[in-house]
Amino acid sequence: MTVHPTTPAAVASRAVADPGVAHRARTRTVQVVDTAGRPLAGAPVTVEQVAHGIAFGCIGFDETERAWRRLTGVQAAPGEDELLDRLDALWFDLFDTATLPFYWGTFEPRQGQVRTAALRAAAEHYVSRGARVKGHPLVWHTVAPRWLEPLPDDEVLRLLRERVRRDAGEFAGLVDTWDAINEVVIMPVFTKDTNAVTRVAKTVGRVGMIQLAFDEARAANPAATLLLNDFDMSADYEHLVEDCLAAGVRIDALGLQSHMHQGAWGRDKTLDVLERFGRFGLPLHFTETTMLSGELMPKHLDDLNDHRVDVWPSTPDGLDRQAEEMVAHYRTLIADARVQAVTYWGLSDHGMWLNAPGGLVFADGTPKPSYDALRDLVRGQWWLAPTTVVTDDAGRVDVTGLPGRYAVEVDGTRTEVLIGEGDTAVVPVTVG
């Protein structure tokens, strides 16, 4: 990305270092004037990027557990806090959006005993340092409370509505993006265990469950961004989206999971998913992305949870493969303007789902090649480092880059500039 007082032709050729996503760059003009409103030509202007508009996310589950330990007085294992500090620094050096765990069964393991304080502390940890926070999920059949199961269906539905209203409302202003409901395609036919949410979904139906989640969350926080999220990328999910839209459900974005334990999707599958789900005209969030740095999971398994191992190490070939496939996948996604968020499902192998080598960082806090490769994109090729230029004869400079927030500083005066779709008005900066 670049800042310049040059011609439009130069803008097009120098806007973004990565040509594959250059078409997503936008330009905003800044005009520097004195206190009398006269343009200042030849004034030195320093511009730097402050934040991406596209959400580059990762889970913040470790910080949630640390907050819970501190609140309950549980001592960390030797060296654990030091490790979490290292991981936290790596998190903020790459990511800007944290997904926090609101699984009902662990958030409220006994009825009325909620972990609101721990989740609030974790959310504030991220927000205080400029990150955005997303909650996952408000409704899901897996990790549902066991204490729900003996209750009759009408009581389960009442409590489910109450849960959504309570948590979406209590965290409004701090957590304003939610997976309102998760994995509904399989929800009514789920057979891995018995749970009250699947039971009521069989009678209420998929669209009815989605309507419940969205209505209650929207009522509690009208400003929230609410996602329908699923791992099923088949036509079944497409048909569910069609049914929801026909029923008048207001979906703010579609959540698409991409756990690649059995191998990377590759460009063709990724483009196919983008096209099939992009046709609805809704923003696309890739909510759960995982790529392995070790041996891949057997292809014949339909449920990733069926693969259980005690030790699952990275391999030299796997480390190289993960880095290469990570870059290719993110480039394909960010090249599509419908993609507004990409969340990686686990910074490190420390506590990784299924014990898989899916982290961008080893369990000891050492970055893998994939971390460096992704950071080179997000905070390198797709990021504007501090750059100083001078204004043209009209006192203007053009700020060009991917959607996001930029800071412009002239003679000690610092002004924030937003770049995005529709942000075209000239930004005045007065000095003197």
Summarize the structure.
With 432 residues, the protein is α/β, with parallel strands linked by helices.
Spatial sequence of strands, sheet with the most strands: 4-5-6-7-8-9-10-11
Whole-number tally of structural domains: 2
How many strands, which pairing sense, and closed or not: the largest β-sheet? 8 strands, parallel, barrel
**Overall 3D form:** globular
What is the number of E strands? Answer: 16
CA-based gyration radius: 23 Å
Helix content: 25-40%
Q: What's the helix-strand series?
A: EHEEEHHEHHEHEHHEHEHEHEHEEEEE
Number of helices: 12
Distance between the termini: 29 Å
Low-confidence stretches: 5-14
Examine the secondary-structure arrangement and name the CATH architecture of the largest domain: Alpha-Beta Barrel
CATH fold description of the largest domain? TIM Barrel
Percentage of residues in strands: 15-25%
Provide the residue-averaged pLDDT.
94
What does the model show?
The protein has 432 residues and is α/β, with parallel strands linked by helices. It folds into two domains: 2-43 and 391-430, no CATH class; 55-381, TIM Barrel (Alpha-Beta Barrel). Helices cover 34% and strands 22% of the residues. It contains twelve helices and 16 strands. α6 (153-170) links the parallel β6 (132-136) and β7 (177-182).
